[in-house]
Amino acid sequence: MASAVRHAFTPHSHDSADKTDAALESSARGLRVLGVSFSVLVVAAAMQAVIVAMSGSVALLGDSLHNVADALTAVPLAIAFSVGRRHASRRFTYGYGRAEDLAGIVIVLIIAISGGLAGYAAVVRLLDPQGVRALGWVAAAAIVGFVANEWVARFRIKVGREIGSAALVADGLHARADGFTSLAVLIGAAATALGLPIADPIVGLLITVAILYVLRDAAREIYRRLMDAVDPGLIDQAEQIIAGTDGVLGIGSVRLRWIGHALRAEVDIVVGHDLSLVEAHAVAVETEHRLMHALPRLRAATVHADPDSPDGTDHHAPLVSHRQAA
């Protein structure tokens, strides 16, 4: 009987097989996105490399290198998606989903390096202007680079948001930054054709600033994931769902955190002190059930049921000193 009572009023979790399958499928989607985008960017970079050899365009060379770097960011993210599919262990009890956040750090660093190289190339070109041959082909290659990067960016950002992967969104933002670099090449080629070669490095500097803004957004998103931040709207939604559950008299703390592209919840609820063990347990289970149906990326929830205290009894009195110390 004592063990049954402890079960009713201590945290418990019922993992859903359907949610686990959804998590694996979202990782599989992420891997497919990376495979497709990697192929698109490699083809675009190869086409640009041929035209670099024809034209001698330093700006296009930089754009081609950026596309190669963007394609390579798929490698750490693909590793993270693969690692994240491993089951939890006694050491990694929450699983390996946070590998995506580590990959996100690598991606942010690559964006920073990309922006630094773009700025350096622009300054060098500003100090030492150079002529460019085959401007028509350079412009065409720049358009190819922009279209490829923008398509990849939209694809990665869309799927990243759908599966809740901040790292994949950051990778999409990186692709968009490289698309801006391609536009700089295009504008520079047009200006060169009009007899204004100095416009190319000036535009390159402006694009570097744009890349820095992309870097800021990507870094902020990854930072928030590392700090276990969530959209406050999710907390509001969870509280509404909990409050609407039959048998819930009050809500204690509601905590959500991202682990990779999956959410986990920890919830404290208040139930009637006169409920039986089975009835209290049923309220906790129903709360978890409703949460997992209403929050699409929620993979698991731990619900802690506390009895109400009409006589003023503090059921957590032994824990007060420990909680104050924390």
Which secondary structure elements does this structure contain, and how are they paired or packed?
Layout lengths: L1 H7 L3 E2 L3 H39 L2 H15 L1 H11 L14 H29 L7 H29 L2 H28 L5 H28 L5 H12 L6 E10 L2 E10 L5 H18 L3 E10 L12 H6 L1
Parallel strand pairs: 3-4
Antiparallel strand pairs: 1-4, 2-3
InterPro entries: Cation_efflux, Cation_efflux_CTD, Cation_efflux_CTD_sf, Cation_efflux_TM, Cation_efflux_TMD_sf, CDF_Transporter
Keywords: Membrane, Transmembrane, Transmembrane helix, Transport
Membrane topology: Multi-pass membrane protein
The helix/strand order is HEHHHHHHHHEEHEH
Quote the CATH topology of the largest domain.
Answer: Alpha-lytic protease prodomain-like
According to CATH, what is the class of the largest domain? Mainly Alpha
Provide the structure class: alpha+beta
Question: How many domain regions?
Answer: 2
GO molecular function: cadmium ion transmembrane transporter activity; ferrous iron transmembrane transporter activity; zinc efflux antiporter activity
Transmembrane segments: 33-58, 64-81, 102-122, 134-152, 173-192, 198-215
InterPro entries: Cation_efflux (IPR002524), Cation_efflux_CTD (IPR027470), Cation_efflux_CTD_sf (IPR036837), Cation_efflux_TM (IPR058533), Cation_efflux_TMD_sf (IPR027469), CDF_Transporter (IPR050291)
Region (Disordered): 1-21, 303-326
